[in-house]
Amino acid sequence: AEATFLSLLCTFGTWYNSSGSAEGSSKTSNTTNSSTGSLERFTVEWQHFMPPWQMSLLQICPILCFLAVLLVIPLILVKVFSNPRMRQETRYLLLANALLCDLMFISFYMLTTCFSAAGVLMSKEACASLLYFLGVFYGAGVLTTKAMVLDTSLAVLLPLRYLSLWPVSRTKKAILMMWLSSLLLPAASVGLFLWYQSSSPCMMQICSLPLLLVLTVNSSRPLRVSLLVALTCLLVCLLLVFCGYVILYYKTRHSGIWRGCFSRAKGTFLIHYLLLFLSCCPALVLVIELLLYTGNGIDLRTDLWVSLVICNILVVLPKTLCPYMYGLRYRDLSKAVLAFYRLKWPSPAVSPLT
């Protein structure tokens, strides 16, 4: 317990001192008394910034999301990979790859949340490995989303050439390339993390993504710039996905698939737009936070709570909703899930013959 407290004190003490909040006390006392008073005041600030019940409530969210996806995603993956017909369809392969990325991301993030809540001390290599895998699974999920838009666009705009342009063999190669690309993209972020840890006088032993975001925003300008560039690239990818769906709508707006208030096409596009908006929210909030800090600065407590809400709620929420809104929309997959839990598929009411 003492080692955990010292690790947290070291981590947040560096943040507190670098923010300039302790400059007033250093002018009115000597060095020894000033450092002792800063530590005492920092302990009070730490308890004020992170009340135990609110922190526990935020840490429960990733665990609940993990339990929610654990009920559905493994069943969908088993159904897709065990069915020969589904393994030969591009839409099912891309959906299974996206759900696999979401399941692995939420699992690893839940693991880091549990470690942080339990006060488990980790070396910088172990923490860097966890962060690297989080980046791999998140990047693979974003690339799979773009591939799903491309698949839908080819199927709608070029239905006669769809099988020749996008066969199953090419889909499998595309999935392999997405995983290889996602293995390379997070390397720069992990390198920056290791560089910051090696240059910092206090080694951070609590591996928590929200705390890392706080330290990144409040640390040197190169880290803030690199984070802003990464977020800009993510927003560009999501913007391309949005443009793809808009093009699909304008190309098919005169067809009959949009007729009726509850048509399947409208429901599908509503799901796409909702999940896309939820996926953009964390990046947009973090970009606004970076711009506000670069401009006039923001309150440290606000910075901490924004990072907690981004990581524990906004990032994991769309990945939790994805299997329920995407996967269960396919009748074959939803029937398999309902049959596993011994639930009945809702059948339409049939009026009796007279």
UniProtKB/TrEMBL annotation:
The entry's keywords: Membrane, Transmembrane, Transmembrane helix
Domain G-protein coupled receptors family 1 profile span(s) in chain numbering: 72-326
Subcellular localization(s) per the UniProt record: Membrane
Organism of derivation: Lepisosteus oculatus
Upper classification of the organism: Eukaryota, Metazoa, Chordata, Craniata, Vertebrata
Main location: membrane
The keyword Transport is assigned to this record: no
Protein known as: Probable G-protein coupled receptor 148
GO BP annotation list: detection of chemical stimulus involved in sensory perception of smell
Highest taxon of the lineage: Eukaryota
